[in-house]
Amino acid sequence: MSPHTITIVGAGLAGLTLGRCLRQYGLAAVILEKASYPPKNNYGITLHSWAFQPLLNILKVDEGLFRRELAVDSVRQGKGKVSGDVLAPGVDADLGTFRCHRGRLESFLQEGQDIRWEHTVQDATTSSQGILVQVQDAQSLGTGVLIGTDGVHSEIRKALAPKIELNVLPFVVFNGKRRSTVAEFQEFFTSKLQNRTITQSLHDDILLEISINDYTPEHVDISYTYSRPARQNDPLHRPDRPTSGATDIPNQFYEELGLLTDLPQPFDGVFDSAKVRRDRVLHWLMRSALGNQAELEHLANKGILLVGDVIHAMPILGGEGANHALKDGVDLARHIVDHGTGSFQAFINARYGTWKRGVEESEARLANMHGCGKVSI
Predict the structure, then answer these.
(1) pTM attached to this predicted model
(2) Are the C-beta atoms of residues 227 and 200 closer than 8 Å to each other?
(3) Which of 183, 268, 339, 371 keeps 20 to 30 A from 132, CA to CA?
(4) Among 27, 57, 26, 33, which residue's Cα sits nearest to residue 330?
(5) pLDDT tens track for 102-124
(6) What is the C-alpha to C-alpha distance for residues 270 and 335, in angstroms, rounded to an integer?
(7) Is 287 helix (H, G, I), strand (E, B) or coil?
(8) Cross-strand bridge partners of residue 288
(9) Other Cβ atoms within 10 Å of 159 Cβ, number
């Protein structure tokens, strides 16, 4: 790569949005991604118009077409309907909010981009000649600008800003996935969802959520989440578990599900402990982080910028990580077009307050969703 290349680390939403917008503006960028091929990411995410509309404006894409192609229920001419009256307290939904299929969104953003798969960035060094990027099992690559967008477990952050630590919030969260035939879905879900793609139910401080991941002519994939604040000496709150431990589900979780009684449908059928045991269930940690502004500006002086979940991570529940990823990508592309790549400090200064508020609001929203204030154990 030439010393004038813009190199993006991570082909997630922030990196893909940035690269696609730069391409639209006529600027070349290379994306380095550790995955060996595009991930399927067969699940839904909630998008708000404040995040996706500026992207569509840059790409000159019609909003109606965007929704028809990417909504989780687009196969049946759905529009990813989200209604605030079936969501827990503190969960936001405006008229433009819809449930988008993440995999199809990423495919849309990947179009025409130079993505180097199987490129795991381990470190980067700077000199008067530019930035040298060290890629696993490959020679070093030279670049003029390095933008880290490789997510909450960012390798580039660990290498260049190791003082930025992830906080694990005191909540117990388990997520499962299930596939049903269209006939089964219509019998047990359609009348309850009423064309919506997500619904929630709060029982004391236990929040149950069911959402559509994908709707095909043959089957419907759903996702469901069980969450609550952590208790004292809680065996289900494991903040120090390794990443590989997400699939280790304690028996206490299934026993807890068995204590749920008199649930309305479709929650009663979805959260049946015997059925959940047969599903693929993950233990989710609710993580957040916020990078130090001075440290980020120090890196920016060297031509290195960290954005997205790399430096303002939000919990999966209550967070707006996908929306802020789109926002970061759009705003950064516009900043580069207007001011070049030598003024990243100004970008950080303009955006840092928004990042900070986003993290704080996501943590508060997570607590409010469970009918409680700030949680500590």
Answers:
(1) 0.94
(2) no
(3) 339
(4) 57
(5) 999 999 999 999 999 999 998 89
(6) 46
(7) strand
(8) 167
(9) 15
